[in-house]
Amino acid sequence: MALSTEAEGPIGPAEPSAPAEHFDAVIAAEQRIEPRDWMPDAYRATLVRQIAQHAHSEIIGMQPEGNWLSRAPSLRRKAILLAKAQDEAGHGLYLYAAAETLGVDRAELTEKLISGRQKYSSIFNYPTLTFADVGVIGWLVDGAAICNQVPLCRCSYGPYARAMVRVCKEESFHQRQGYELLMTLMRGTEAQRRMVQDAVDRWWWPSLMMFGPPDGDSPNTAQSMAWRIKRHTNDELRQRFVDMTVPQAEHLGVTLPDPALRWNEQRDSWDFGEPDWSELQQVIKGQGPCNAQRIDRRRAAHEDGAWVREAATAYADKSKGQSSE
Ligand code: BYC
Predict the structure, then answer these.
(1) Do 143 and 241 form a contact (C-beta atoms < 8 A)?
(2) Of 15, 124, 226, 278, whose CB neighbour count within 10 A is largest?
(3) Residues 15-41 pLDDT 10s
(4) CA distances from 282 to 202, 285, 288 (A)
(5) d(CA 266, ligand 1 centre) in Å
(6) Of the candidates 163, 151, 133, which has an alpha carbon nearest to the alpha carbon of residue 240?
(7) How many Å lie between the centroid of ligand 1 and the Cα of residue 193?
(8) 75 to 17, 79, 99, 169, 170: CA distances (angstroms)
């Protein structure tokens, strides 16, 4: 896609430095950079990296829950889970569309994902062992996603920020359905309560890792904050998530698996233990419990869908031919 290198806007004549000045002024004024605006190459590359990773996460994120679609315990639970997975497919599509405004092609991004050259969220490399995992993913994973994504609605890049508004509304529904499922299980039998606790024990630490490495080990945060792509650091959002979640765990009647968790009056926040950062690095490198399976399935789905893409292209070509006759 050809992209304009000229700034558009009220900043005066197009002198060599004008586009960069326009970019800096827009960022400083908390306004939005739009696809046709000039932007530094590194800003564009950072956005492509983050938005593509985000889109891939939505698409791969359908797999752990998809595992329970055919085994949901009731028609109602199945309908809810199907709707959630469909929302996630939609989020992936908005995000790929946002990435395309930066001059990359969705097919190219998919190729990079399935060849291991682009990442997706570490959280989706853990197995879903029981139906309680569906509830815990909604409560903790979607809860963490909301903490991370609400500030992205104020991201400096217009198409990403606007996509996030709708995504966040749907994520709120996802989180509530998870919490409601867990409340129902907690009102059930002793075995159901144990199932919930077991799922919380397995998903708590990976959920904290979703926010990325600690600030001291996060190479991208400082620049992304300066460009107002990220509005908070990884550690700030992780703390916000813990503070939001501890009272919800109490209300639910589950124990979060962290002996270091205690209220800190001075900080007006919860102190919590250190996640196992070496585990995060292993999972990001592709050595988590389900990395290979997730990518194999994604690759197979992509290959199985080749005939649909071919048919759609042939149909579009044919329609173009007919309309020009
Ligand atoms: N997993 O410098 P840092 C959902 C990478 S889906 C994997 O802090 P940054 C849902 C990072 O990419 C929601 N990789 O990076 C869907 C970087 O590597 P590269 C997914 C991670 O970008 C279905 C390196 O580590 N959400 O909600 O400043 C069902 C250093 O990190 C992770 C998003 O994608 C990780 N956890 O900050 C249910 C949100 N953490 O690229 C739910 C958008 C770090 O330099 N993304 N890395 O090779 C972000 O907000 C930021 O990209 C991150 C990382 C906070 C994740």
Answers:
(1) yes
(2) 124
(3) 546 999 999 999 999 999 999 999 999
(4) 17, 5, 6
(5) 31
(6) 151
(7) 32
(8) 61, 6, 36, 24, 21
> Whose C-alpha lies nearest to ligand 1, atom 11?
212
Q: Ligand 1 mean position to 49 CA, how many Å?
A: 9
Question: In angstroms, how far is CA 78 from the centroid of its own chain?
Answer: 23
Residue identifier of the C-alpha nearest atom 36 of ligand 1: 210
| pLDDT tens by residue, 224-258 | 999 999 999 999 999 999 999 999 999 999 999 99
| Residue 325 banded pLDDT, cuts 50, 70, 90 | low
Pocket lining for ligand 1, CB < 6 angstroms:
49-50, 53-54, 57-58, 61, 88, 119, 121-122, 137, 141-142, 145, 148, 209-213, 218-221, 224, 230, 234, 284
Q: Is 231 exposed, middle or buried (0-12, 13-18, 19+ CB in 10 A)?
A: middle
Q: Which of 56, 283, 284 to mutate to test the pocket of ligand 1 (most atoms within 8 A of CB)?
A: 284
pLDDT tens digits for range 126-172: 999 999 999 999 999 999 999 999 999 999 999 999 999 999 999 99
Token pair, residue 66, equals: 């998809």
Handedness of CA 105, 108, 114, 117 (dihedral sign): negative
Pair 101, 158: CB distance under 8 Å: no
Give burial (CB, 10 Å; 0-12/13-18/19+) of 177. buried
**Phi, psi for residue 33 in degrees, rounded to 5:** -85, 130
Residue 33 bridge partners (DSSP): 157
Closest CA to 205 of 274, 136, 149: 274
Q: How far is CA 66 from the centre of its chain?
A: 17
Contacts of 223 (CB under 8 A, 6+ apart): 42, 46
Q: Residue whose CA is closest, atom 10 of ligand 1?
A: 58
Cα–Cα nearest to 235, from 255, 254, 257, 209: 209
Name the residue at shortest CA distance from atom 30 of ligand 1.
218
